[in-house]
């Protein structure tokens, strides 16, 4: 069975084609198209790629979701787009939110993907439009999380409010003290994110040192900063898709 997976973020849409063999063995390919996603899917349809199922998770607006849905329907008129929403509990993972649907489905799926790769307690950091941090114990209980705005958005909104803060000269990313305005702004933001991650790593609310798994467009950057601080972390770029694959196993 050929399945098309779509992960619509607030900045980028990502998709993956995967081949589901014997109900549980999956091979996924073709990760990470940047928008416009429909154009890419259309091109692939033209060369004959046709999925048996299409699953989508979206944290973008309802309007965006509707637009994708109708475009997909035009390309593949016989297929219904299956939209994944956040449950209270599924596949061994329990959502910490009381209002369970308010937890972003990308956060849910990234945790589910992480859970599929380890039996240990873990922290998922998904660094995209927002930098989210979610803590899960080894029994699959989500402990809760943090949502931080992307560093660039914070810096830009500060510069828009402060007459003398200009962000002209961008230096390599670092968390050391700055000696020029740009470094003072950016380094402070990255330092605050890294210290928060470090604090959760050291806190061990799950009773053991958790694995730190990184995903999202800025994963590499966070990995480097964490490495400088001797905090072990690993990038698993396709965490959301790995989570979606769980939905294909029943
Ligand atoms: N080539 C790129 N195009 C767009 N964003 C990029 C790129 N490389 C890194 N980024 C960073 O990745 C972020 C988007 O990451 P992503 O995880 O796809 O976001 P989202 O899931 O919110 O759509 C951007 O905000 C930017 O900071
Ligand atoms: C926190 C998010 C904005 C992250 O989105 P992303 O950076 O992946 O585009 C998204 O998961 C979301 O809209 N969540 C709803 C609020 C919540 O999770 O509590
Ligand atoms: K994110």
Plain-language structure description:
There is one protein chain. The protein has 250 residues and is α/β, with parallel strands linked by helices. It has two domains: 2-83, 2-Layer Sandwich (Nucleotidyltransferase, domain 5), CATH 3.30.420; 118-243, 2-Layer Sandwich (Nucleotidyltransferase, domain 5). It is built from seven helices and twelve strands. The strands form three sheets. It has a five-stranded mixed beta sheet, sandwiched between helices. Strands 10-9-8-11-12 form a five-stranded mixed beta sheet, with helices on both faces. A two-stranded antiparallel sheet has the order 6-7. Helix 1 packs parallel to helix 2 (62-75) and helix 3 (105-117) packs across helix 7. The two termini are 13 Å apart. The model is unreliable at 30-35 (pLDDT under 50). The site of potassium ion has 5 residues, from strand 9. InterPro entries: ATPase_NBD, Type_III_PanK.
């Amino acid at each position: 069975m050929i399945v098309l997976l779509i992960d619509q973020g607030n900045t980028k849409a990502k998709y993956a084609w995967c081949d589901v063999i014997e109900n549980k063995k999956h091979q996924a390919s073709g990760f990470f198209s940047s928008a416009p996603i429909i154009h890419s899917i259309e091109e692939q349809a033209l060369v004959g790629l046709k999925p048996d199922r299409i699953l989508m998770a979206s944290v973008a607006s309802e309007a965006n979701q509707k637009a994708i849905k109708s475009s997909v329907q035009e390309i593949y008129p016989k297929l219904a787009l299956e939209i994944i929403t956040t449950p209270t509990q599924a596949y061994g993972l329990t959502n910490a939110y009381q209002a369970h649907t308010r937890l972003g489905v990308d956060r849910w799926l990234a945790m589910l993907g992480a859970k599929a790769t380890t039996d240990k307690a873990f922290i998922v950091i998904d660094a995209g439009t927002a930098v989210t941090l979610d803590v899960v114990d080894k029994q699959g209980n989500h402990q809760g999380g943090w949502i931080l705005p992307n560093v660039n958005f914070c810096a830009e909104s500060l510069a828009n409010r402060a007459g003398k803060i200009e962000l002209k000269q961008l230096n390599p990313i670092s968390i050391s003290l700055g000696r020029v305005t740009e470094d003072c702004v950016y380094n402070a933001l990255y330092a605050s994110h890294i210290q928060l991650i470090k604090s959760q790593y050291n806190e061990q609310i799950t009773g053991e040192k958790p694995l730190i798994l990184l995903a999202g467009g800025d994963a590499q950057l966070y990995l480097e900063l964490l490495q400088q601080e001797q905090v072990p972390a690993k990038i698993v770029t396709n965490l959301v898709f790995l989570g979606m694959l769980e939905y294909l196993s029943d």
